[in-house]
Design a protein that fits this description.
By secondary structure, the protein is α+β, with helices and mostly antiparallel strands. The chain has 15 helices and 17 strands. The strands form 4 sheets. Strands 1, 2, 3, 6, 7, 8, 15 and 16 form an 8-stranded mixed β-sheet that branches.
Length: 483
């Protein structure tokens, strides 16, 4: 994208354009480091990875022994957190920690992590350089399932809290840490934690969860940048059903159920949702513009003027296209069981990741309109629905703390910018009890490591771990003492 923008010639527009100012860079907050060494943190994370905490949506008892052992390990590894924050077991798996603040009138802060990890695809274990649940420390990394998603986050936030309590930390504002047990398969634990806060008549000042991160080689600029998720997409799966006459395959009708289903799926895929550059993407572009030279920086600083050009470039890449519109992904198809029998029904599951501009109701109406001309085709919701939460603000004290701590833990001059997550996090459960929801993992990583999340050879840099602890100590101490 950088090279593409650098080649744009916009001389005819220069005279029409006033200088566009990027959003104000958050002011760095003095870091609050701890004495934890990278080696000690790596050993602790290595131990955490060895617990195969794999959740299953349809089997709440799955891996129960592993989860029980993991929670016992947490209590032994972070004794002050467990002694002073009184963890409450919610839904027989999620843990809700509370450190009461001195001023009950202040809204609490909530930091979320999850205990569960995705399974390793059967037959792929030999593709890992090190066994996926061994927690191997080698080559400057801790290797294993959950290193990035998200036991690295979990271990370092608890380490931050443990060291603050060792120092006698007594906040004005209540601090909650929520460790979900089923984020990867639906997030019922997070929903229950948010419901408990709502039942108490409380709202969170801000929620911090996984999401964006800091990259040493962000592709748009080629240098380091911190991306903080201020929004995420919703989730909707639909079942498309096509019905037609059955019978013997030797005398098929003009339209079979499978043929009708293929036409329906194509009609849906060939009529995509609106893709346009909405908030927070313009703010992200303007914040990155100073890092780019010449015409590329000029264009990035003016997304209002060059919106169609920028949109065209974003549409060419799967990842960037997903940030500017609702995506359509057929994932399951079924129909028929015998090669000489015409099925009377054929079905497909299509997964949508909803952009904040689209609701589940409007998305469903869009899909149904696309197949309205096909007799025998229906489109109905399948499974749980998650609406996209509102975009969180990039101003105010909550943003200043989250983003300012990020600035102080990045290389000098690296931009910190808002972005929209294509995936879903536990934080979406808190959309009714918080107006400020941010998604940021404060670890420095390479863009290439993104493919390791849920993939082979998941790993995290050992030298990133102390900075993560320092980031969480900075956020917790700064927010906890904010009156």
């Amino acid at each position: 994208m950088k090279q593409y923008l650098a080649g744009i010639i916009g001389s005819g527009l220069l005279a029409l354009t006033a200088c566009s100012q990027p959003p104000a860079t958050p002011e760095a907050i003095e870091p609050n480091p701890s004495s934890f060494s990278a080696d000690a943190l790596a050993r602790t994370l290595s131990e955490a990875i060895r617990f195969e905490t794999i959740a299953e949506a349809d089997n709440p008892q799955a891996s129960r022994a592993e989860f029980d052992a993991f929670r016992a390990w947490l209590a032994a590894s972070f004794p002050l957190v467990h002694a002073q924050m009184n963890p409450q077991d919610i839904l027989h798996g999620s843990l809700w920690y509370t450190l009461e603040g001195a001023n009950p009138a202040l809204d609490p802060i909530v930091i979320l992590a999850h205990q569960d990890v995705v399974p390793v695809e059967p037959g792929t274990q030999d593709q890992w350089d090190y066994p996926p649940f061994a927690g191997t420390i080698a080559d400057g990394y801790v290797w294993g399932r959950g290193a990035l998603d998200m036991k690295g986050f979990l271990v370092t936030v608890l380490a931050a809290m443990e060291t603050l309590l060792e120092e006698g930390f007594a906040p004005e504002r209540t601090i909650h840490i929520g460790l979900g047990h089923d984020e990867e398969v639906g997030g019922t634990g997070a929903q229950a934690m948010a419901a408990q806060l709502e039942a108490q008549g409380r709202r969170a000042w801000f929620v911090l969860d996984e999401g964006g991160s800091s990259f040493d080689n962000f592709p748009i600029t080629g240098g380091p940048a911190g991306l903080i998720g201020v929004g995420e997409k919703g989730f909707l799966s639909v079942e498309v059903t096509a019905r037609a006459r059955g019978g013997h395959s030797s005398t098929p009708p003009p339209e079979t159920a499978i043929g009708l289903l293929s036409r329906a799926v194509n009609a849906i895929v060939d009529n995509p949702f609106e893709h346009s550059i909405d908030h927070p993407i313009p703010d992200m572009m303007r914040a990155l513009a100073p890092e780019m030279d010449g015409m590329a920086g000029f264009v990035m600083a003016r997304p209002g003027l060059f919106g169609s050009t920028l949109r065209g470039q974003l549409m060419e890449d799967d990842a960037t296209r997903a940030t500017i519109g609702t995506t359509i992904a057929p994932t399951i198809i079924s129909g028929g069981s015998v090669d000489n029998v015409l099925p009377q029904e054929a079905r497909a599951i299509i997964n949508l990741r909803l952009h904040p501009r689209d609701s589940s109701a409007s998305a469903l109406a869009h899909l149904r309109a696309n197949v309205a001309h096909l007799d025998g085709v229906t489109v109905e919701p399948a499974g749980s629905i998650s609406e996209a939460p509102a975009i969180s603000p990039t101003n105010g004290r909550a943003w200043e703390i989250i983003a300012g701590a990020a600035v102080s833990h990045l290389p000098e001059g690296a931009p910190v910018v808002p972005n929209l997550l294509a995936g879903a996090t536990d934080s979406r459960a808190f959309k009714n009890v918080a107006d400020h929801i941010y998604r940021y993992v404060p670890m420095r990583m390479e863009m290439e490591d993104l493919s390791r999340i849920h993939g082979d050879d998941e790993r995290i840099r050992t030298d990133a771990l102390p900075g993560m602890v320092s980031y969480f100590r900075t956020v917790i101490s700064e927010a906890g003492m904010e009156g």
